[in-house]
Amino acid sequence: MKKAIKILLVEDNPGDARTILEMLNDSDNTHYDIFQTTRLDEGIKILIKDHFDLILLDLCLPDSEGMDTFNIMKYNAPDLPIIILTGIKEDIFAVGAVGRGAQDYLVKGEINSKLLATSIQKAMKVSPE
Question: Whole-angstrom Cα distance, residue 122 to residue 98?
């Protein structure tokens, strides 16, 4: 049996968090160990104390918004792949985020279990060991 992929989910919307968790639990082939927090500062504190394989990051949080959220997280976790989860459907924004180091940019409401799992698998393959 493969080792679980340990994910930090930083998402403040309970409905969105539940949907993401359900999508990850629907995966047939991969087991995910997920820890969720609702604030950027809490996520950074958790990263200091524990090891994660990947971060799923909402850009609109109570203590940070927009690309600042990504930039702060990337600064604090430079070696971890970060997949942005957002409600903002802007191609230019997505290209900018990936250009700054995000592994992927997924629009909530447009993703499904398969797309999320594929994005995670790709991010894990391109991330530094």
Answer: 13
Q: Which long-range contacts (CB under 8 A, 24 or more apart) does 24-32 make?
A: 24/113, 24/116, 24/117, 26/113, 27/113, 27/117, 29/117, 30/2, 30/5, 30/117, 30/120, 30/121, 31/1, 31/2, 31/4, 31/5, 32/4, 32/5, 32/6, 32/7, 32/120
Percent above pLDDT 90 for the chain: 66
Q: Torsion angle, CA of 65/106/129/18, rounded to 10 degrees?
A: 80
What residue spans define the domains of the chain?
9-111
Give the per-residue pLDDT at 30. 83
pLDDT tens column, 68-118: 999 999 999 999 999 998 877 766 666 677 778 899 989 888 999 999 999
Do 84 and 105 form a contact (C-beta atoms < 8 A)?
yes
Domain 9-111 is found in CATH 3.90.940.10? no
